[in-house]
């Protein structure tokens, strides 16, 4: 999607520098507490493994795994902010990744009337931490800007020659045409009464992560029936 034609180049440069500083500072400050969470979870597992039941052990392992995943993600964010993104490609089960991200978000938001349709998604080679965060930002977007109807999100994927095309569709309120050129701008949020204030960086960082992966993100369609975002990723 093209940038707003009324914006001057120096404004775009300023916004890009602001988002890089934000990502670098936040990621750096999170490294130490995340390292300690992972370390103490591992120590507890070693000390208490023989005394905890299966559910307790699973919860403790989950704390350690999530802290380690967050450590990898913050390192990737710092490298991205520094202009030299460190991408660690591996085989990613897109179906499992989408279901995991969706489950975490619906638990966090306590949403009970939202459904995800994502059967048969392929495995592909990418960085699971960065791709997971892209999905998280797009699904948060759908959960935030929903309509009065129960939310239904559909994720589909198809390969065309050297690229994967992943589409994320929802039946939300849609995006006003006046705002469609602005949704990827850093620190800008789509106006909606009652939404929780945030940094306005979700779609911006999602696009930056995909650029680091050799792909891109665009708004393919939006009207009163909902929106559809398109992720393009190279096959290899």
UniProtKB/TrEMBL annotation:
Q: Which SMART domains match?
A: HATPase_c, HisKA
Keyword set, alphabetical order = ATP-binding, Kinase, Nucleotide-binding, Phosphoprotein, Transferase
Pfam short name (any one):
HATPase_c
**Where is the secretion signal located?**
none
Q: Name one GO biological process term.
A: osmosensory signaling via phosphorelay pathway
Superkingdom per UniProt: Bacteria
Catalytic activity annotation: ATP + protein L-histidine = ADP + protein N-phospho-L-histidine
The record ties this protein, via PROSITE patterns, to:
HIS_KIN
Q: Which residues form the Histidine kinase domain?
A: 25-236
Q: Which GO terms describe its molecular function?
A: ATP binding; phosphorelay response regulator activity; phosphorelay sensor kinase activity; protein kinase activator activity
Q: What is this protein called?
A: histidine kinase
Which species does this protein come from? Rhizobium redzepovicii
């Amino acid at each position: 999607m093209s940038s707003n034609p009324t914006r001057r180049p120096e404004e775009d440069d300023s916004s890009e520098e602001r988002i890089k500083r934000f990502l670098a500072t936040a990621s750096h400050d999170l490294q130490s507490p995340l390292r300690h969470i992972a370390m103490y979870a591992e120590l507890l597992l070693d000390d208490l493994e023989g005394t905890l039941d299966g559910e307790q052990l699973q919860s403790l392992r989950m704390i350690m795994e999530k802290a380690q995943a967050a450590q990898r993600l913050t390192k990737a964010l710092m490298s991205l902010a520094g202009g030299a993104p460190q991408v660690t490609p591996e085989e990613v089960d897109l179906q499992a990744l989408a279901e995991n991200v969706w489950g975490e978000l619906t638990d966090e938001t306590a949403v009970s009337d939202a459904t995800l349709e994502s059967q048969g998604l392929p495995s592909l080679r990418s960085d699971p931490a960065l791709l997971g965060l892209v999905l998280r930002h797009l699904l948060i977007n759908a959960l935030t800007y929903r309509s009065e109807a129960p939310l239904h999100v559909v994720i589909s994927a198809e390969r065309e020659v050297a690229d994967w095309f992943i589409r994320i569709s929802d039946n939300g309120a849609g995006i006003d045409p006046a705002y469609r050129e602005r949704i990827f701008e850093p620190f800008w949020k789509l106006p909606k009464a009652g939404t929780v204030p945030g940094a306005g960086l979700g779609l911006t960082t999602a696009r930056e992560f995909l650029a680091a992966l050799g792909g891109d993100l665009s708004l393919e369609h939006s009207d009163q029936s909902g929106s559809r975002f398109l992720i393009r990723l190279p096959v290899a």
